[in-house]
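Quick illustration, no need to memorize.
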Amino acid sequence: MGRMRIGVIGGGAAGMTAAIAAAGEGAAVTLLEGGERVGKKILSTGNGKCNLGNLELSADAYYGADREWIADCLARFGSEDTIRFFRGMGLLVKERNGLLYPLAEQASVVLDALRWELRAMGVETVLECRVDAVRRNAEKGFKVSAGQRDFEFDRVILACGSKAAPKTGSDGSGYLLAESLGHAVVLVMPALVQLRCREAWLREVSGVRAEAEIRELSGESGVIEERGELQLTDYGISGIPVFQMSRRINALLRKRGKGSEAELSVNLLPDYSAEEFGRLCAGRRLLQADRTAEEFFTGILNKKLMLLFMKLSGIRRDTPISQVESGRIDQVFGLCRDWRLHVTGSNSYDNAQVCAGGVDTAQVGRNMESLLVPGLFFAGEILDVDGRCGGYNLQWAWCSGHLAGRAAGRRPES
């Protein structure tokens, strides 16, 4: 009896892991990648340092699929399995604040380890091979068409990625392949992405970074609140807390319809309680004499922010503070803890790290095999699973790729 022939479509993190796992089961594996190289997206992860995973692994860090389904998957390939997987390839892994990185802190060494493991396991890699169609053969197995080339496989793993970062090869074509085989695709939208705001005066504070607590005010989709370093841009807001809430904000805007907005409250002094901030403001008023407004407000926040808040409150910077109405001073103080911004949308898939939505996991079994098409498997971002920042999305790639590869590579029981 010959070896199982496995076709893996997509040479990203999940696809390479799936190919390695399937080859480890003794299968003959062919990896089809549409780009000129495999693993291109890995090179940009973790700011080039590649945050491999997170020791604080929990299904609560993920969205999309049923939490119990995700938890079951992670229980069978978790953080310790990721560490063993890479150490088995000779890659040393270190932990920092619960986050996993390669010891060398270079994404390129992660990609090198995966590429060399593919070669060592005898995986055939076919580059610049864009798959156009996947069809079930009349008797058994699959026919995969890529331009003028056709491939025959016993089983196929779709690991084509999402629409996020299309320059790395993720163009959404995998969704079309899944739909052609009868699978439903949950509505796709950018996640872990910058948010755009309608306030044009944000240009005046572009480039400023500040610790902040950000909260969506309607409560329509539950509490949407994050804290961390906020980055201000000419078009809106960025930074880890913004990325973390972007998925839910985009979903809220999509639900409300075209032209809708989400109102955010930004607290730029999150370490101060209301009482402590009240005492700070009262103490500062004792410094009013002989100071201009600019001098009076100096030292609270970044200078650009304070000048903007003065402008929004109708205070000229060179006006003696003793001549400024008390209400206007209170307005500036209020903006420090409750600065309102109005989100109109997010940046595009070009800027998104991942996508929300994808192949409906209600149609996928616990080993990543289709419940509709026997012999068809899924791995990685193509599925309706997306995680928070902190290595969770790469962990999902290793986890789903490993489960899909092992299950696909095994021979059916006779």
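The radius of gyration is 25 Å.
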